[in-house]
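Bench notes, bay 3.
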Amino acid sequence: MDDLPLVSIGMPIYNEGKFIKHSLDCLVQQTYPNIEIIISDNCSLDNTKEICRGYADKYDYIFYHRISVNTGIAENFRYTQINAKGKYFMWASGHDLWSDNLISECVNELERSKNGVISFASSCWIDESGELLNNYTGWTDTRGMHAVERFFTIMWGNMHPILGLIKNSSLNEIEEFKGMLGADLLMLCDL
């Protein structure tokens, strides 16, 4: 494992008790073996705390941090990224699921690419019981586009790639996550 780059997964959460067990199960079942999971609980009022503490007690690479007063979305996202030690970083929500090879595939893509800064998969929508919905979220490859064309493609696209695997050095070079509507799209534009 020492020769594999560390992947940091930041999980900024609030009241995710209904789904977080499924999300954490997906992350600990990843085929990529060198990960750390940084959970920042923004003062949840449900059973999120108990579930996350259980996972942190069971897995030595899961770190649980609970904020004593709700600080808002941006601060919660920032905390996870600031505390990441990995070469690569990704945010993970407390209500999403991932294929078990997502991180392995994304690391492989970024390791092969000299100029790539983010690697991600297409998203499929599911309902509360995990059943696939007839809604698919694609993405346009912006490599080689003129800067203006790339900007409009990102701004009128979707924000799911912000949950992709990002070179942490590139993430550290851009402005921090802002507490405003569309912050994820602005961050994608910077990347």
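Next record in the batch:
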Amino acid sequence: MSKIFLLSSNVTVVPYPVYPLGISTITKALNYFGHEALQFDLLSQNKSEDNLIKAIIDFHPDFIGISIRNIDDVDSFSQMEGFYLDYIKCIIETIREVITVPIILGGPAFSIIPSEILDYLKGDYGVVGEGEISLCDLINDLSFGKIIPRIIKGISTNEIFSPVFEKDLIEFYIDQSGILNLQTKRGCPYSCSYCTYPTLEGNRFRLKDPKYVVDNLKYLIKNYSNFDIFFTDSVFNDPAGHYLKIAEEILKNNIKIRWTAFFRPQGMNFSDLILLKRSGLYSIEIGTDAACDKTLMGLNKKFYFSDVINFNELCVKAGIPSANFVMFGGPNETEDTLKEGLKNIESLKKCVVFAFSGIRIFPGTELHHIAISEGIIKKETSLIKPVYYFSKEIEPNIMNELIKKSFQNDKTRIFPPSEGTIRMKALNLFGYKGTLWDKLISANIIRKDRKTKR
């Protein structure tokens, strides 16, 4: 048996603090295979290096695993200010001053650019993709002195490991954001040109039994209160309808919970939304991604903006607030598509829209190949530090000014993304928690009403 210190290195709170579900699940797998694991979350410890070092010394681990959630904040306005790896590099250097055990890197960010990140952070080993089985195998091999590659590929499995929820962590995230996380599936069969999900979790949905999901909900509700659930699936509303079975199981067990998830604006009807609302759905995040058919095609979204409009109308009819996330400047973007897209966004009612300028390029994606073919980057260009795709058919500064002008009189239209942080923090000061799209929408309606009366 080995002792493994699991460190969640994520300290970003934008748009809200996110519970470290990854290390909670890895802990369960390690325990299952006879190891002892200790979870340590830097954010909940106020980024205290003193607390980190004390915990490591007291636990005296045989291995340290570090989960890396994000490389950067994917916001072209912040550039290097939103680059997180230098902070993690300093943390690793601090750890090395007090202990010499192997440091194993993992998590979604690491899995995107594993070799470069391992070298950049000076880690010893890394696990790409899912780590429940592979990390245990790696630790066993190292314990027996086997010579193994520095980077190993994670094994995708249907083995279900329920998270080991740490009381202190749960209470911290309930206090800070009011949101806890669960998964109902892994993988993504869609091939959006910019996205890394299929690389991280596979290109098909691997579904978790609805009873498994509800059992986790029951545990959390029994032991904690005043929280919402975010189902962190790449896409919640899968074509086969597994998401409806989740809702039905929640209702069948009379679970009282507010929940939200990430949706694709396609393949649902009003009765589906009402079923979800009855089961606790209180807000929706929508992967709109582009604002007109031509740019949607450039991202290989395989739906039309009319689908987005129809989905918005369903949400409004069902009384479910939503937020759309749109990236401008991608493939096929021109000044004409920008103007069309901004007009299309005006047709979306009672919803929040977050706009991004440019698209972060990640290796292995179709966008990466497009950027190389267009001469935006070279094949050998390092992508460990943020590089953004901007269509050559529109000047970014002109694009940004047009977006700002279009959004300036509507509090539900947020650009640049940092504006969203400011508005969310303002709502937090009044004690509001959760996704808060409803509060932004309500505030905007009140503001417009007052303006009209004047």
